[in-house]
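Feature request, filed as a ticket because there's no other form

It would be nice if the structure record came with a short human-readable summary line next to the tokens. Right now we just get the raw output. Example of a typical job, pasted below so the devs can see what we mean:
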Amino acid sequence: MSPIIHSHSFRVRYGETDQMGVVYHANYLNWFEMGRTELIRSAALSYRQLEEKGVLLPLTDAVVSYKKPARYDDLLEVRTIVEEITPVRLTFAYEIYRMPDEELLVTGKTMHVFTSTSLRPIRLNRVEPELYQWLELQQQGEGAR
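Raw output as currently delivered:
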């Protein structure tokens, strides 16, 4: 089965562009964060709540592949999946499309580790077993959105 795709739509704001009206490249990483935040929220758990439980998800690596530029006022959709999960690591994959024509603009991945608030690695399956199971189901393409 394919992983479950979580989608989130938004508009490019003026401040996210350069003088030519083209999105500044680093903003795509912010939009990746938006995608994974909304994916976690769909588990009825916000990043804030996760952090309040003592679980952090620091970024260890990021990969971005630019295909075509986004421009001011474009309606975009970030599609996020759980690409890989282990008890200590999590990889998200992203695609950003211009809507409504669904033109692929950017692809990417971010890799994370589960840590305590003191930044020591933890095993999510022991600390938050329900969330770990939910993320596994997302990666396997099972369960409700």
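Something like this underneath would help us a lot:
Helices lie at 27-41, 47-52, 124-127, 129-140.
Residues 40 and 60 are 18 Å apart (CA to CA).
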